[in-house]
Amino acid sequence: MISKEEIKHLGWLARIELSDEELSKYEPQIDRIIQHFDILDGLPLEFLEPTYLTKSVRSLRIDQAKDFGENVLPKSRNRKDGYLKGPKSDVKP
Question: Where are the domains of the chain?
Answer without folding.
Answer: 4-41
